[in-house]
Amino acid sequence: MEANSCFFFGLLLLLASTMSLANAKVQHHEFLVQATKVKRLCKTHNTITVNGMFPGPTLEVNNGDTLVVKVTNKARYNLTIHWHGIRQMRTGWADGPEFVTQCPIRPGGTYTYRFTIDGQEGTLWWHAHSSWLRATVYGALIIYPREGTSYPFPKPKRETPILLGEWWDGNPIDVVRESTRTGAAPNISDAYTINGQPGDLYNCSSEDTVIVPIGSGETNLLRVINAALNQPLFFTIANHNFTVVGADASYLKPFTTSVIMLGPGQTTDVLISGDQLPARYYIAARAYQSAQNAPFDNTTTTAILEYNSAPCPAKCLTSKPIMPRYQPSTTQIQSLPSATALKVLGKLRSQLILMKTSSSQLA
């Protein structure tokens, strides 16, 4: 009798595993890495991009899918692509760190990455893992629930990736090479960006400021990624609160805050409700700097949250957020033990960071 029970239980497990595999897909993508003319801060640069896009393409998969990405390198630099946060289960050679899991892809060469995403749902990202090419070679990697399952929170009306980055008004490879030559710290960035654009507070940038739409009464999901090379960043939206529901491709027990901080490479999923007067509201990010007397980029990048029922010309009034100050002497940071896993899909970052701040108005 006991043997029959064990056999029946094993059969059920095998059937469940087979059904899960049947729903999984193999997704194929191609990355062409090459120099592309990109104009920012009044100047045009030959910028290394993927498929001519800055930031690069967003990859969307389901938990359980296999991702196959053929990378062709037409740039003049060696490079690799790293899948930041992906658990490489017996596919370590697909992880991407240069000279660690693979030799770099030489100019004119190709390499195909193949790996299965298992037990992760939420937001991750990919980026170059060679020198400072990741200043412009990066993009979002969105992992949806397995087919037939859903989020552990109400489905949002709209989902928007928000990629925070750093921009140098020159070749970032030259920046790091000069630092290596002199032994000095690298020159600080000239701007921060939201989805590749610096925003209204920088020269020659306001016409291309990113617009994020929202409807009155809607609840939208923002997938926020800090793709900056060196800088932790505060992120906030004027007059709106966030409900934090995930971090680094793991779900969290929801909690509410008006501002989040992300370290370089970190991702955070937040819900935002269209519960304010229909208008335009600044989305903003700027540095959190803990080191005393160390130079850093103290500028602020902006985008605009625009209600669908209240579109207006670029010069119309936009509400400004209250931003945390840069230094820890005026910003008390505490880890939140309440930021715990809601649905365990694997190991979870045990803590998130929330700010209780002395604040200043966006300049």
From TrEMBL:
InterPro entries with a match to the protein in the record: Cu-oxidase-like_N (IPR011707), Cu-oxidase_2nd (IPR001117), Cu-oxidase_fam (IPR045087), Cupredoxin (IPR008972), CuRO_1_LCC (IPR034288), CuRO_2_LCC (IPR034285)
Annotated signal peptide: 1-24
Catalytic reactions of this protein: 4 hydroquinone + O2 = 4 benzosemiquinone + 2 H2O
Domain of life assignment: Eukaryota
One annotated Gene Ontology cellular component of this protein: apoplast
Gene Ontology molecular function: copper ion binding; hydroquinone:oxygen oxidoreductase activity
Coiled coil: none
Domain Plastocyanin-like: from-to ranges: 33-147, 159-309
Record GO biological process: lignin catabolic process
Gene3D superfamilies: Cupredoxins - blue copper proteins (2.60.40.420)
Name used for this protein in its record: laccase
UniProt source species: Hevea brasiliensis (Para rubber tree)
